[in-house]
Amino acid sequence: MSIKLKTPEQIEKMRIAGKLAAEVLEIVEPFVKPGITTGELDKICYDHIVNVQKAIPANIGYHGYKHTSCISINDVVCHGIPSFEKKIKDGDILNIDVTVIKDGYHGDTSKMYIAGKPTITGKKLCEVTQGCLYAAIEIIRPGIRLKEIGKTIQKYVESFGFSSVREYCGHGIGEVYHDEPQVLHYNADDEGVILKPGMTFTIEPMVNTGDWHTRTMKDGWTVKTKDHGLSAQYEHTILVTDNGVEVLTLRNNEDFPRIITHP
Ligand code: MF3
Ligand code: CO
Ligand code: CO
What we know:
Blueprint: H1 8-28, H2 38-52, E1 56-57, E2 69-73, E3 76-78, E4 93-102, E5 105-114, H3 120-138, H4 147-158, E6 163-164, E7 170-172, E8 179-183, E9 200-203, E10 206-208, E11 214-216, E12 223-225, E13 231-233, E14 236-240, E15 244-247, E16 259-261
Antiparallel strand pairs: 1-4, 2-4, 3-12, 4-5, 6-10, 7-8, 9-14, 10-13, 11-12, 14-15, 15-16
């Protein structure tokens, strides 16, 4: 398995696509309130990508998917389908996941939102999920094995008594949406590749309050926790640099460095 390294020109395009994807998560934020439907939130994302960014929503037509975003509420782990019938309720936790294509390159990112008054468990789960993504990003530098990412995430999540979902993983990304390598969010046997400058991939841990098993609904998309516990997810697209990592989908209001360098 050989993973193509991005050239400086390609990296610049990844930066632009990443920034646009991050911007979508920011502009939709003020609308995430009890009473709005996930269909309306999806339309806000679509309109911004197409009309303002003049970019392409990568999910539309992806394996027959019809929407711009995946919106996954409470016990939905991932791939929740937006619907004008589905209203957000007070205390709901929801993930919005968008991928934008600009100039042929993909930016893929997601974050959690809490509607109205947070529940203690919902808030804690969201914090831990963001925390495990940050912990994984912080160790990235050339020379380490991909396996270290999953190991870091699993250890972090389990120290809070939560579990890391195993059936879905992060992925290489660039001109191709879901490329090699697979980025596992748990400590698997496979050592994985050695990270090199110019690699771009996503890290997108899904974390459950109960156990990690999931079940896909009859619609063929919606993935829920098997035990009906809550689930949260955060996703960033990152670049391995010469001495660390760059977060390509960092949001302006996000309290995390865009670039981390290791001496
Ligand atoms: N954005 C998701 C990911 O992080 C994939 C969604 S595919 C869709 O890789 F078709 F469900 F939109
Ligand atoms: Co995504
Ligand atoms: Co992804």
